[in-house]
Amino acid sequence: xxxxxxxxxxxxxxxxxxxxxxxxxxxxxxxxxxxxxxxxxxxxxxxxxxxxxxxxxxxxxxxxxxxxxxxxxxxxxxxxxxxxxxxxxxxxxxxxxxxxxxxxxxxxxxxxxxxxxxxxxxxxxxxxxxxxxxxxxxxxxxxxxxxxxxxxxxxxxxxxxxxxxxxxxxxxxxxxxxxxxxxxxxxxxxxxxxxxxxxxxxxxxxxxxxxxxxxxxxxxxxxxxxxxxxxxxxxxxxxxxxxxxxxxxxxxxxxxxxxxxxxxxxxxxxxxxxxxxxxxxxxxxxxxxxxxxxxxxxxxxxxxxxxxxxxxxxxxxxxxxxxxxxxxxxxxxxxxxxxxxxxxxxxxxxxxxxxxxxxxxxxxxxxxxxxxxxxxxxxxxxxxxxxxxxxxxxxxx
Length: 397
Description:
Catalytic activity: acetate + ATP = acetyl phosphate + ADP
Shape: globular
Strand order of the largest sheet: 5-4-3-2-1-6-8-7
Binding site for substrate: 88
CATH topology of the largest domain: Nucleotidyltransferase, domain 5
CATH class of the largest domain: Alpha Beta
Distance between the termini: 12 Å
Largest sheet: 8 strands, mixed
Strand content: 15-25%
CATH architecture of the largest domain: 2-Layer Sandwich
Pathway: Metabolic intermediate biosynthesis; acetyl-CoA biosynthesis; acetyl-CoA from acetate: step 1/2
Organism: Alysiella crassa
Radius of gyration: 21 Å
Order of helices and strands: EEEEEHEEHHEHHHEEEHHHHHEHHHEEH
Structural class: alpha/beta
EC number: 2.7.2.1
């Protein structure tokens, strides 16, 4: 068997991992480490549909979780076949427009970008250091969420604030979900039988974190997220676009600090805040069908805001040949897709109800009628495979 790739995606208290064979895209092992940093930390492995939970109390951190992965690979007889490790890194700022082999300079650059992703980059560094320690000698590759969006033109990424703030602090729009957009744009072109370098796509990556991007001729030309993943669409717990004066308003009326307001907008808003019910789209859809007013409103706002962004991204792309839905919500919510396409009917998209219902649970498919002027398609994303392919390429496997 060819050398395998280990893919790591680390959060502050979690670790998602997968071992892939890039030749056939097979996932041989996946795992999720949770409650890292707490005494009751654990990791759950999944192999051939079977799950196994392993206690990490002896070393309840990222290093312990990666060590448990090595133990599992040894038990499966696969440890010697892992040839390299790929890491999802949220922000590379303006420093990287492609994935890169990790060395001391790259680690320093990721540290430099911490102010641009204070919740994510420190966790990504924990995963890198854990992998270097546990899998000593193997090459590590950083795959940046921001890299794909480095092709955005200056007029798309520049905020209308004093230019000195950009020059001195790097205050600009960076965008995220770039690895997903890169995979999905290429896959959508293949699925539609088109050349991605001659295609105007608007892609909606919808999950607990949600964004939309304009991809023209294979390159990102605009996206909804900004300097952080808070800007843009309504999300599971994030407010998305909001008047910046809300900070002063809440500080004056509720005596909240900047940090507390940022926490409110990131973790207490979005679908959760509107519905006063849940951040989980599945729960909200179910309750909306039962007549829950907050759930009904949350779905409508989510869909309406997305539809407005679809139209604006068509401007950025110079037109629209296809609207692509991806991510957990984008791939599975026929209700939201229907709402968005109905709002976008003026652009020439007419939903095919039967096809839309069929395009769920990992099934790609066109969801517009044959007479639609613009096609809409569901394409499942696979960020892990994209990371693994980049890692194999850069490590020479």
